[in-house]
Backbone:
């Protein structure tokens, strides 16, 4: 029983650390992978969807904004790999008439 009571504490600690990485890590690759891991905790901690929604709007990397937007809107746990996300972000920008993929 004690292990079950502590389980929520562990999830909260892990989510807090992952949100911090998503917001502050300078590596776009690390932030991309963090979105994938955070998505798995979406049903256990309300901060997850909030953090992913913020990344969908504010992250400097267009591929991360793309995958974060997809997770936030669909609730799917699967996150595309970085190369696929970059291609999808480029296609999305091309549809809107933006010539070049660049950070905010």
Residues:
């Amino acid at each position: 029983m004690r292990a079950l009571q502590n389980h929520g504490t562990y999830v909260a600690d892990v989510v807090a650390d992952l949100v911090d990485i998503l917001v502050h890590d300078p590596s776009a690759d690390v932030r991309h992978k963090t979105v994938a891991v955070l998505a798995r905790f979406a049903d256990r901690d309300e901060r997850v969807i909030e953090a992913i929604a913020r990344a969908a709007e504010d992250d400097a990397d267009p591929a991360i904004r793309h995958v974060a937007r997809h997770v936030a809107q669909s609730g799917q746990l699967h996150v595309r790999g970085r190369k696929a996300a970059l291609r999808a972000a480029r296609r999305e920008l091309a549809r809107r008439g933006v010539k070049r993929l660049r950070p905010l």
